[in-house]
Design goal:
The chain is of the alpha+beta class and 264 residues long. Helix content is 22%, strand content 25%. It has helices spanning 3-16, 27-67, 70-73, and strands spanning 130-132, 143-145, 150-153, 156-160, 167-169, 178-186, 197-205, 211-220, 227-231, 236-241, 249-255, 260-262. Strands 3, 4, 5, 6, 7 and 8 form a 6-stranded antiparallel beta sheet that branches.
């Protein structure tokens, strides 16, 4: 038999032979395959975990970065509302007159802004008041704050005369009510002794209703409180003194536009 016939017969035998059942790999090979599969599963799980952690870290970083985003923190301004169109000649909104409105003569019909003026002196608690004393030759020119009628500015002491009430009138003829007040003062031996000195002072009112000095009217040492009064509708201040030498001394004072003049 020649070689070709041997090959042909072998091939035919293989083609017609029944298939043998596959018994699978042996125990050693099977263990190797299982171990390889477990390694692949662990590697896949580790990769998934790393991917999740990376995504979380990126989210945290973006979150912190967003916290410093000034554009996101800036409040949103409301959109401006368009003013409704107005028919020419019609009044402006809210019924207010137009700032450009004018009368028939072409002058503005908007009233000018008024300047606040000094108000009249209203009744105040003189015994608990704060005032500036005008310059005088009896006691120092200073700012005094009274509490229950007295003030202490060593070496000087001041008091609202307790037995003499202020008198009210328009003493400087400016159309506002003024007040004439008796104030006493005394010092220590180093500044002239403890003898009581009387100051007659005229006050007008400021914008808050407090006292503002007009000027010094009179001053003297006496053993009783002087009694001020007004006459000629407040144009003349009359002071009835009781000097230590005895008797009666009456002085009159009139405002000349700058100061009080005695005997006017």
């Amino acid at each position: 038999m020649n070689p070709e016939e041997d090959v042909t017969r072998l091939l035919r035998g293989m083609m017609t032979a029944a298939d043998e059942p596959y018994g699978g790999p042996g125990p050693t090979h099977a263990r190797r395959i299982a171990a390889a599969r477990r390694r692949r599963r662990r590697g896949l799980a580790a990769a998934v975990t790393a991917l999740v952690l990376t995504i979380a870290a990126v989210g945290v970083v973006l979150g912190f970065a967003g916290g410093h985003d000034t554009d996101r923190l800036r409040p949103i301004a409301p959109k401006p509302t368009a003013s409704p169109s107005r028919t020419p000649g019609s009044p402006p909104p809210s019924g207010r007159p137009s700032a450009r409105a004018s009368d028939a003569n072409g002058s503005s019909s908007v009233p000018p802004t008024s300047t606040p003026t000094v108000t009249a002196l209203r009744p105040i608690d003189w015994r608990n008041s704060v005032m500036n004393l005008p310059a005088n030759d009896v006691c120092p020119n200073t700012r005094v704050q009274f509490s229950r009628g007295v003030a202490s500015l060593p070496p000087w002491h001041y008091e609202i005369a307790p037995t003499t009430q202020p008198v009210y009138g328009d003493v400087n003829q400016d159309g506002r009510t003024d007040a004439v007040v008796v104030i006493t003062c005394w010092g220590t031996s180093t500044v002239g002794g403890p003898e009581t000195r009387f100051m007659i002072i005229a006050f007008t009112g400021n914008a808050k209703g407090g006292p503002t000095p007009i000027g010094f009217v009179d001053g003297l040492q006496a053993y009783v409180d002087p009694l001020p009064s007004l006459r000629e509708n407040g144009r003349v201040i009359v002071v009835d003194w009781r000097p230590e030498s005895g008797g009666t001394l009456v002085r009159t004072h009139r405002w000349n536009g700058t100061t009080f003049v005695a005997g006017g």
